[in-house]
Amino acid sequence: MIIIFDLDGTLLNTIDDLGYACNYALEQTGYPTHRIEEYPRMVGNGINNLIRRALPEAERTEENILRVRAHFVPYYDAHNSDYTRPYEGIPELLQSLKAQGHRLAVASNKYQAATEKIVSHFFPGIFDVILGEREGIERKPNPQIVYDILSSLNFKLEGFSQLSTFNSQLIYVGDSLVDRDTAANANVPFVACSWGFVSRQALIEAGVSRIIDHPAELALDIYIHQSILPQYDAFDGGHRRDHAETVISESLKLARANNADETMAYVIAAYHDLGLKIDRELHHIHSGEILMADNTLRQFFTSEQLLTMRDAVEDHRASSKNPPRTIYGAIVAEADRQIDPLTVIHRTMAYSCKMLPEADFETLYQRSLAHLHEKYAEGGYMKLWLQSERNVQGLAALRSLIHDEPHLRTLCREWFDKSKAL
Predict the structure, then answer these.
(1) Is 235-338 assigned to CATH 1.10.490.10?
(2) What values do phi and psi take at 12, rounded to 5?
(3) Alpha helices, DSSP H, located in 224-293
(4) In terms of DSSP bridges, do strands 2-5 and 170-174 run parallel, antiparallel, or are they unpaired?
């Protein structure tokens, strides 16, 4: 697997050396300095942007930035390891990942010479590719740095713009919203770390889904992305990897809102539909069996936690008449609902088409209409256990469509015609 790491705030706590270098450069050019603890909010988009934020607002011209930079760079080159240190657990994590055969890369907005020097100093022989800010290449969050890393590792660029099996071979790890946006722009999975320059709460408020609190936790994410999520690629259109990833994202939000263990909710969501590879009718039971049989999970969870997770997986199914046994079952069940009206309609038609591949539109439409009434209309078997705002609003909108049959028929016809044209 290829694991791309941000540098400052992810692998290394560089803030003191950055702050001292910036203060030195500001002093040399006659500008006021800042307390070191103020610098975390200034970093993240390269040295020029750090200097821009450090300058008085009225002095933030390109000419002044370059004057300050002329003092910053030589000072930082000589002092970039004075106070900088790896975060606790990072050296051990990198050594373990390297020993397991993963390919490791650094993607930084620090200028290239400093990036290479500091990485080689603290992590000699660990990284396969080390890229920083380079002349003529846009900085993160532009995804070019990700593409350049992959090209250096002999991966072709075709297909990077779409979610594919390739993404089971790649994770991007960073501490900032710049990193989140870089990963999103490159369309690769992102894992945020909470020990860096952006607080966990700020990451949550910005909508970041998966956040880890210690480097050792990354091993679980690597396993999920490499070995579990790719299994969804073989399922029907309504249960592919994008569905699993949405359930994961929603489960993490609900776990935070209900003070539940995020990592348990994360894994429950990742496993909740794996039983589809055995049998659809009892897939929730088989999913629980698969979870319990996975010895890798025993490295991360106690037997009691695994039993709770199994129960939650079993309880997620919409047709279940009984309420979930735990908050974790309620979380994954609510996350699995994903009541976006148009998505529900398309998925229902897709499943009808899978069951009756030779049927004409009218047959498929009538089957889908009956299912929508049975599951989602007033009195339908689908229940919202946590009544999340997203699903409550989505269900109301969906019911309105179900009762507006001319409009519903038009939407189904549009899906049918498009699917036949593919």
Answers:
(1) no
(2) -125, 140
(3) 241-257, 262-271, 283-293
(4) parallel
CB 401 within 8 A of CB 408: yes
CA nearest neighbour of 229 among 243, 218, 216, 215: 243
Q: In what order do the strands lie in the sheet with 129-133?
A: 129-133, 103-111, 2-5, 170-174, 190-193, 211-212
Beta strands of 290-378 (E only): which ranges?
none
Per-residue DSSP letter, 8: B
Q: Which residues pair with 190 in a beta bridge?
A: 172
Sorted by where each begins, the domain ranges of the chain are 14-86, 235-338, 341-421
Which residues 6+ apart lie within 8 Å of 346 measured at CB?
415
What's the pLDDT band for 164 if we cut at 50, 70, 90? very low
Single pTM value for the model: 0.84
The rounded distance, in Å, linking the Cα atoms of 107 and 12 is 13
User: Which tokens sit at 190?
Assistant: 């992102």
Predicted local distance difference test score (pLDDT) of residue 239 = 87
DSSP bridge pairs for 106: 5, 130
Mean pLDDT value of segment 170-184: 96
Q: What is the CATH number of domain 14-86?
A: 1.10.150.240
User: For 59-111, how does the pLDDT look when each residue is reduced to its tens digit (9 = 90+)?
Assistant: 999 999 999 999 999 999 999 999 999 999 999 999 999 999 999 999 999 99
Q: What distance in Å separates the CA atoms of residue 218 and residue 25, rounded to the nearest whole number?
A: 37
Task: Say yes or no: do domains 14-86 and 235-338 share a fold.
Answer: no
